[in-house]
Task: structure prediction
Amino acid sequence: MFDLKTKVLENRLTKGEGVKGHTLPKKAKKKKVEEGLKEKMSNVQYNADSITVLEGLEAVRKRPGMYIGSVGTKGLNHLIYEIVDNAVDEHLAGFCTKISVTLNSDGSCSVRDNGRGIPVEMHKKGVSAERVVLSTLHAGGKFDNNAYKTSGGLHGVGSSVVNALSEWMQVKVYTGGKIYYDAYQRGIPTIELEQGLLPVIGKTKESGTEISFLPDGEIFEKTHFKAEWLRSRLHETAYLNPGLTIVYKNEMSGEEEEHVFHEPDGIIAYVKELNAGKEAVHEPIYYKGSQDGMEVEAAIQFVDAFEENILGFCNNIFTQEGGTHLAGFKTRFTTMINSYARELGILKEKDANFTGADTRNGMTAIVAVKHPDPIFEGQTKTKLASADASKTVAAITGDELQRFFDRNLETLKNVIACAEKSAKIRKAEEKAKTNMLTKSKFSFDSNGKLANCESRDAEKCEIFIVEGDSAGGSAKTARNRMYQAILPIRGKILNVEKASMDKVLANAEIKTMINAFGCGFSEGYGNDFDINKLRYNKIILMTDADVDGSHIDTLLLTFLYRFMPELIYNGHVYIAMPPLYKVVPKRGEEQYLFDDKELERYRKTHKGDFTLQRYKGLGEMDPEQLWETTLDPERRVLKQVEIEDARLASEVTEMLMGSDVLPRRQFIYEHANEAEIDA
Result:
């Protein structure tokens, strides 16, 4: 679905939430709990033997999501990124100029670099350093600032995690005229060391490391790499490292291709690619500077369009959720444009300053920092948290852009003109919103659309966007009134990708959602979006499990992605997974099945007759069934909507939901057989 990636999240809400009619009376419940506790206490002893210690890489196999984010396609591809990032670190250190990445026909992946090679000498632990790196968490050369000045892999878990989650891994190290070899199965070494050192299998004049691995089918839901994501990521890496050549080969059956990525113009070429097909206002602005051991590089270009596209990177890693480096860049840029606008007399004394969104209207920018000791939020490194990055990026941006704008007055005027256009539209838009969104006839409290929850604690609250009044009626009856709000929508909402702003704002369903969420909205300009004002921690799309339901989901996601992308980036948007079937056997417990595959498995494994009920829509379920299957935090299945690749997401959304038919037709022809929901 326009490259918005989803993953299954189960049982994530607070336990113990009940609904009237679905819970035991308090006294009976208390008695039952007490009886249960007595029974457990009589059977279970908690002593030293109860403490489990996960040795070596066992912890990774037990909780893989902690290390790679998920066990779906995103986590699968992340294995390759971990190995590639290590090779890129060799490049950053000045020892690697070429990386080869191959998707092999047997489903494995090979990554080869021409760096120094993983050290193979004896480690103080009594074995080869390579064995320590590949089989021990938090072991690597990134902790020593003398070995790597900047690095993407700082936790020392990358290679060892990949090893733990692979059915097999083979390592060849080319160094000192020799080829050293090691092999593992599910993280356990299978090669016997010779006096603690790796065996030599040949001679060479080359240097570097080659790692091949096959993801473990016991861990991952599927083991087929997403080639499109990998190709995009490698090209992105080439843009960020102008001196690096990346050779990509795909040898998987039916997908064969080969690309060589080398971008000597670096992020300038990246910005131009992002703006391909759009009317540029000026040639890209590029600057680079360093301060306090940190290097900052940026490329900026404005286009004649109402949009904003800023991508941030730290040590070559795409910070999907932004962070301090982008905050520093945006704040400083806004201050500068307002200052110049007043200096040139474009903003008069009585005029209000341009907003941050105004100054970034039409901006495409790449902001890349090299940080010696970055702090990320989480192992998957989607958000930079280093406080010093904001200060350094702001300082270098201020100095370098001032130098540029003082010498290029026409470019400056063109940039300010974009801000003027945005401010003008924003003021008209605000007026329109005041007229359209605040009238009582559009208030959901008066028209009865929104059945709000009683709690005002946004962290605990969630809102279900429900298709139709019949499903809405059942949902309103079944829900937990304290924390669950229900918002029914009628029919298919407006496709915002094709619609003008006035049509978007005139659409009753969209206005109701904007009002319900409470956080404003944006389209890259006129931005009054404030995620801190969001009234619900979870926005859950709950539509029928059919084609129409999927279409409504797509329209809703298009709206959220274009007007409130932060909701997706910050993990607030989910898709409910209602069951498709209910099976009632003559003997045994009834079951809900979510798709045809589950039904097929049930038929194969279940002996005896059973009654099959198919739900055409949520409206066919009574309140109790809807609670059990779709609303109950203890039993439901949700998919969290994520964006894997910002550039691809924007491109594919525009193509699939836009007005141009030919590219969409071509895309459907090429990808029809791949259609699936990726969980």
